[in-house]
Amino acid sequence: MKPRIGLAAVAHPNEVGFAEAAGLLREITAALAGAGEEWVVHPAVVTEIDAADEAFERFYAARLDGLVILTATWSDDFLAVRLVKRLGVPVLTWARRGVHTGSLCGTQQLDQVLAELGMPFVFCLGEPDDPEVRRLIAEFARAAGLRSRLQNLRVGLLGHRNFGMTEIAVDELELRRRLGPEVVPLSARRFAAAVEAITDAAAEAGWTAAQAGMKNQATPAAGRQAAKVLLALNEWRVRHRLGAVAVDCYPDYMGRFCLAAARLAAEDFVVACEGDVNGAVAQVMMHCLTGGPTHNTDLLDVDDAAGTALFSHCGAGHPSLAADPRQVTLAPVRLADEGVCVLFPGKPGPVTLVNLVGRAGTYRMGVIEGEAVATDLEFPGNPVRVRLPGGGRAFLEFVARHALGHHWMIGYGRVARPLAWLADWSGLPLYRGGE
To answer: Which pLDDT score is estimated for 191?
Structure first.
């Protein structure tokens, strides 16, 4: 779903450029057509309180994810402040270049007032045809859309978190207060019954479809069981209106959910490992901001000489993440030699890594950007080798300094900036590596 963003222009009749403000708004509206966002534009330039309230009514009815305020000329700051405060959505304040319009001055004035009122904002300077302006607005829109998605997200916890990983214990109330997701406890016993209720014929058909275009080393029995889990989980995500689920897989159900995680990623649904609800939320963040499936990983090792770190989990990644989709292999999980995992090395490219941990008073996010480089199947899962700013040892020091966790969600693209905005809007401390 495209993020829905409002656009309003403010100006003052006394200022240079006021006569051109309406035309500028029309020009921007035309330029936004066909963009990756759904735009709701207030057609009249806001110059007085009645116009601000008319804009509010339009935007409120549209249920916006975010709002862009264009300062066409210097303007009375209370007009935009009233609009922003009543809507309660993330805001980007946009100043134009030019000496005489007062646009930059007015935007700085507005930003100061918003800050004093505890309303975070994103600042933008430039003309509508500036590529950096367009890029910034697009990132803002994705971040605002993500915030809305998190506010409505239901995350299932199937079973419980891993017994030996106190680190991943979730503070449900703090998660809900800060970011919005609701944790939905799900009965492992009832899910097991739902799996067994899937017919053998449906399981056989599901397993046949899952193997298409892939190499296979898994047994037919394991494949049919994995297909039953996939079909049952797909039913439950619809029934419980879930956007993600954290599953109790290790050690008793190793390899049972990996195929489902890989397949359902294409349906914009996250299946996170080891009952890590925070990991599931972080993976939703990355999926939403990068526009595609993501890696759910452990940090395994660093190579000081190469300046890289190696990440992987058992093999639950979508094949689109593979360096060579033709080499994707279905195989039993390591250690237990059962189930069905989806094995491949991750593809190279720019990446962002995120980790979400803590409780009330310590809840925090760690973020770092890097470059995934070519690697082989160094670990029987979905290994991703990432070149990191400062190298692997500096990354380990960053992790230790901020007591971050061992589960890192990796998405392709550089999205640290919108993650920082989300953290700011949520009052969530964010630590960024490589700076």
So the answer is: 97
Can you point out the beta strands (E) in 187-313? 215-216, 244-247, 270-272, 295-303, 308-312
* 104 and 163 co-located in one domain: no
Contact 5, 38 (CB under 8 A): yes
Q: 386 to each of 87, 324, 344, how far by Cα in Å?
A: 41, 17, 15
Let me know whether 421 and 318 are in one domain: yes
SS (H, E, C) 90-152: CEEEEECCCCCCCHHHHHHHHHHHHHHCCCCEEEEECCCCCHHHHHHHHHHHHHHHHHHHHHC
Surface-to-core class of residue 435, CB atoms within 10 Å of its CB (0-12 exposed, 13-18 middle, 19+ buried): exposed
Band (pLDDT 50/70/90 cuts) for residue 70 is: very high
Domain-terminating residue out of 108, 136, 151:
151
State pTM to two decimals. 0.96
Burial of 202 (0-12, 13-18, 19+ CB in 10 A): middle
Identify whether residues 140 and 165 lie together within a single domain. no
Q: Are residues 64 and 163 in the same domain?
A: no
Number of domains present in the structure of the chain: 2
Residue with tokens 């489902």: 260
Compute the mean pLDDT over every residue in the chain, rounded to the nearest whole number.
96
Angle at 272 between CA 266 and CA 274, to 5 degrees: 155
User: Which DSSP letter does residue 345 get?
Assistant: P
Distance CA 218, CA 330 (A): 6
Give the residue numbers spanning the domain of 369: 154-432
Give the CA distances from residue 43 to residues 26, 39, 138, 299, in Å, rounded to whole numbers and listed in that order.
8, 12, 21, 51
Tell me which residue of 157, 141, 150 sits closest to 177, measured CA to CA.
Answer: 150
| Among 151, 170, 198, residue at a domain's last position | 151
Q: What is the DSSP letter of 287?
A: H
CATH number of the domain encompassing residue 92: 3.40.50.10940
User: 21: which strand partners?
Assistant: none
Q: What is the DSSP letter of 333?
A: P
Per-residue CA distances from 292 to 299, 317, 410 (Å)? 21, 11, 11
Phi, psi dihedrals of residue 226, rounded to the nearest 5°: -65, -35
Query: Which pLDDT band, with edges at 50, 70 and 90, does 36 fall under?
Result: confident
Whole-number Å distance between alpha carbons of 353 and 413 = 10
Taking the C-alpha atoms of residue 253 and residue 21, their distance in angstroms, rounded to an integer, is 62
Q: Which residues, listed in sequence order, are joined to residue 92 by a DSSP beta bridge?
A: 68, 122
